[in-house]
Design brief:
Number of domains: 1
CATH superfamily: Dynein light chain 2a, cytoplasmic
Helix content: 40-55%
Number of helices: 4
Largest sheet: 6 strands, antiparallel
CATH class: Alpha Beta
CATH topology: Beta-Lactamase
Strand order of the largest sheet: 1-3-2-6-5-4
Shape: globular
Strand content: 15-25%
Oligomer: single chain
Distance between the termini: 14 Å
Length: 154
């Protein structure tokens, strides 16, 4: 695991220890990766971040159409692996997403309990105000490559 922000590392390490998750991806609601654990290739991280953000956005729209406010977490029960995608608020006003892949060695209930703890810990530890800067289209590739180098230590 390599976290971009130092205040993310401790809660994420604790979550990994308690939940027995195999893969974890923390990102902003727009799909910007904040931290990851267990992914071997950056292309997998970026693909999962893109898909996770898209699933979250489409689920929020379905909830809006249905008039229910929020559908909460999305859980997929596969054969040997399960996926949880959940959103949580941060102090600076935005939402982050957590995408967690886990196996038969733990249950969805256990992962949900520890994910709620992770979300609360990150919310409390987050800086109150974040510096906001506009990323222009011509800077996008450089920003993406810098994020990937930071995540994978290259």
């Amino acid at each position: 695991m390599r976290a971009v922000e130092p205040w993310v590392e401790t809660p994420l390490t604790e979550f990994l220890r308690e939940s027995s998750a195999h893969l974890v991806l923390l990102m902003t609601s727009s799909g910007q990766v904040v931290a990851q654990h267990g992914f071997a290739r950056s292309v997998d991280v970026m693909g999962c971040a893109s898909l996770g953000a898209a699933i979250s956005a489409s689920t929020a729209e379905i909830a809006k159409i249905m008039g229910v406010g929020s559908l909460g977490q999305v859980v997929h029960q596969g054969g040997t692996r399960r996926v949880l995608l959940g959103s949580f608020p941060m102090r600076h006003g935005g939402n982050w997403l957590g995408l967690i892949v886990f196996g038969d060695d733990t249950s969805i209930g256990v992962v949900q309990v520890f994910f709620a703890r992770l979300a609360n810990a990150l919310h409390r530890a987050a800086p109150v105000a974040r510096e906001s800067r506009q990323i222009l289209a011509e800077q996008f590739e450089d920003e993406l490559n810098a994020s990937l180098r930071s995540l994978f230590g290259r």
